[in-house]
Design brief:
- Helices cover 36% and strands 22% of the residues.
- The protein has a six-stranded mixed beta sheet with strand order 1-8-7-4-5-6. Strands 2-3 form a two-stranded antiparallel ribbon.
- The protein is globular and about 40 Å long.
């Protein structure tokens, strides 16, 4: 019976990886213009979106058991490195896992982005997310402008261009 479960899990993981290859950022306005959160990182420091005002922020909801989430992590890191001199930040929000498990996983893979904890899934649900990974791109005023469900190539020229457009928008636009 264990072999059947393991095989079934492997097939599902393979299918999820294949299905999400064509995802792209799409304009998103289903939530209020400005949404907030207050989450601790793996070190215990609290983070709010107000901490990142004036920066374009990519909020990525993920879990350590999610193959597409893990698949896109290197791309998220490369994107952050590529835009290192810009007002841009990536916040990787772990959904539903305990602090120690997340900390251990992050250390094991050497993930270098800020990792926040949504252990009760409250923020994930409040943002209208239901699929992992789900990512939101916020403008410098903290308004959600784009969303993608599933993994994408974060360091593609289209994504970088879109983020640079948001970075270069004037504060009084929109």
């Amino acid at each position: 019976m264990k072999i059947i479960h393991i095989t079934f899990f492997a097939i599902i993981c393979l299918l999820l990886t294949q299905v999400t290859d064509s995802r792209e950022l799409s304009p998103y306005t289903a939530l209020p213009d400005k949404i907030v959160f207050d989450l601790p990182d793996v070190s215990g420091k609290q983070h709010t979106l107000d901490d990142y005002r004036g920066q374009v922020v990519l909020v990525n909801f993920w879990a350590s058991w999610c193959p597409p989430c893990i698949k896109e992590m290197p791309g998220l890191e490369h994107l952050r490195q590529k835009l290192n001199d810009q007002p841009f930040e990536v916040l990787a929000v772990n959904v539903g896992e305990k602090k120690y498990k997340v900390w251990k996983f992050v250390k094991l893979i050497g993930f270098g982005l800020p990792v926040l904890l949504d252990t009760r899934k409250d923020t994930f649900k409040a943002w209208g997310a239901s699929v992992l990974p789900t990512s939101f791109l916020l403008d410098k005023q903290g308004r959600i402008r784009y969303r993608v469900q599933g993994d994408i190539e974060w360091n593609s020229e289209d994504v970088i261009s879109l983020i640079e457009q948001l970075i270069n928008e004037e504060e009084n636009e929109q």
